Amino acid sequence: MSEVSVDAVGEHVSEVCVHRPPNNFFDTALLEALADAYEELAEGTSCRAIVLRSEGKHFCAGLDFANNKEQDIAALYRNALRIFAAPLPVVAAVQGGAIGGGLGLALSADFRIATPRSRFAANFSRLGFHHGFGLTVTLPRVVGEQGAADLLYSGRRVEGPEARILGLCDELVDEDHLLSAAVAYASTLAGAGPLAVRSIRATLRQGLVERLRLAMDHECAEQERLRRSADFAEGLAASAARREPRFTST
To answer: According to the model, what pLDDT value does residue 1 have?
Structure first.
């Protein structure tokens, strides 16, 4: 099976599913496959809304830094921009964790359906690292400037009920109903005038891709700089050992 599959799940609704369980870590190849799927669906005539989901315990744990130390972050973000630029509305079904870059992927969607046990975290500071995946732009759009500062500075985890209050997700449902709820939400979007929805979405997101491009350029530069720091090495070691990091830089 391909690591990204596309299936029709309702009238004018297609599911794009990531198959890298249990954590669904991404890399450039996976984001390229997602972007390809989005663009192909948009070029066709049958799909009007997309459900983004993943197979396994967690929605997405971002990039596996421990095993992708040489990942070309700039190439990864070029494909992330293609995901943001695709014209169809997307509803993400978020089970388990949307962590680090996985939170960035969740926020690339227009809407998020989650469960009380879902959790969201921009945990970059806990790794001694700079955030990425355009969270500079997308996180304040969802939770406001103050909320974004709280989540990015602290790296703290937000569980389903608080995520709903903050706006990180749009609906909370039982785990057994997560996919069906996401499909139902997407079906509502698909039932509206398709030209109108694309036009309205383009208006609401006007300038977003360019702002993301600039933000990702800066995020990438900061990530490359901090990648060489002792704090990042300590953050990775602490994460692997499931202990509190002991940062030493000032």
So the answer is: 60
Q: What CATH number does the domain containing 126 carry?
A: 3.90.226.10
Q: Identify the domain containing residue 163 by its residue range.
A: 4-176+193-202
* Whether the predicted model's global pTM rises above the 0.85 cut: yes
- Model pLDDT for residues 202-213, shown as the tens digit of each residue: 999 999 999 999
Considering the domain boundaries, does residue 198 fall inside one?
A: yes
Torsion of CA 24, 27, 33, 34, to 10 degrees: 60
Say if 32 falls within a structural domain: yes
Q: pLDDT tens for residues 11-27?
A: 999 999 999 999 999 99
Sheet strands (E) in the chain = 4-10, 13-18, 49-54, 90-94, 97-99, 111-114, 119-121, 157-159, 171-172
Residue 93 falls inside a structural domain? yes
Question: How many folded domains does the chain comprise?
Answer: 1
